[in-house]
Design a protein that fits this description.
259 residues; alpha/beta; Glucose Oxidase, domain 1; 9-stranded mixed β-sheet; 8 helices; 23% strand; elongated
Length: 259
């Protein structure tokens, strides 16, 4: 009998020990999820801003811009990636004009803009009627990569794609073509606003891109767009489990107010 009592006491002791270990985790599970706050204190630090934007969904950024400004900030379906990529950076804008020429220096300004570009720049190039002209290729991509650009967005074609994929430099463009801009285009401007797909992009605007596409965030609205996009992300990511549990998207949308 003494052995039986000892065994029972041992089992009970082990049970209470296990329960004590599990109690904190059970309490944590009962606590309401806390929404991450926007890092407002560090929004004046460009690196911190980009770090935050790299962790939000581009779709949420797009929705946030539309809600706050009543305008769209996303580029159209024409803009496609060479490979799946996610990046954020500050727009370095360049525009090429369609001008037939024999001037060896016609595109020098385009190259100078790259050589003077800062780390985390996104090379945003508007190529006038450039769907069938490569606005950039492997050489320019190598220079951008060496200078630690975040990526490139070309309103025109791109070539040398095998090499760009090899070095892993992310490019969004309207298509892949083997042609050249040499002799057909002239550098018009850099670090001046450009308009792509009806979206005005100014130097220093934040460009974000992922598998859903490309969005331009006006620099002056970067803080509030980021905060709202983070809120939208939190709601959407929370909804997946609720939809699976309730087997109803309508109930989840009613609860979180996000679609």
């Amino acid at each position: 009998m003494g052995l039986v009592n000892l065994t029972r006491r041992h089992v009970v002791t082990k049970w209470w020990a296990a329960a004590a270990l599990m109690l904190p985790f059970a309490l944590i599970a009962l606590l309401p999820a806390q929404q991450p706050a926007a890092p407002a204190a560090s929004l004046h630090d460009p690196a911190s801003v980009l770090a935050a934007y790299r962790h939000v969904e581009v779709a949420s950024v797009s929705d946030a811009i539309e809600q706050l400004t009543g305008q769209r900030g996303y580029l159209s379906h024409r803009m496609q990636p060479l490979f799946p990529a996610k990046f954020a950076g500050y727009a370095l804008t360049v525009r090429l004009a369609k001008v037939e020429n024999h001037d060896p220096d016609a595109l020098t300004g385009m190259l100078t803009a790259i050589d003077e570009g800062a780390k985390d720049s996104v090379y945003v190039m508007q190529v006038e009627n450039g769907e069938d002209i490569a606005g950039m290729g492997g050489l320019m991509g190598t220079a951008m990569s060496a200078r630690e650009f975040a990526g490139a967005v070309i309103d025109g074609g791109v070539r040398d794609v095998a090499y760009l994929r090899k070095i892993g430099f992310p490019v969004y463009a309207t298509g892949i073509v083997p042609s050249t801009s040499v002799g057909h285009y002239r550098f018009e401007s850099s670090n001046k606003p450009v308009t792509i797909d009806g979206v005005r992009i100014a130097p220093g605007d934040i460009i974000v891109a992922d598998s859903d596409g490309v969005v331009a965030v006006p620099h002056a609205r970067a803080a509030e767009v980021l905060a709202l996009a983070q809120e939208m992300d939190f709601k959407e990511h929370s909804m997946y489990a609720w939809i699976e549990k309730l087997k109803s998207i309508r109930e989840a949308v009613a609860k979180f107010g996000r679609l």
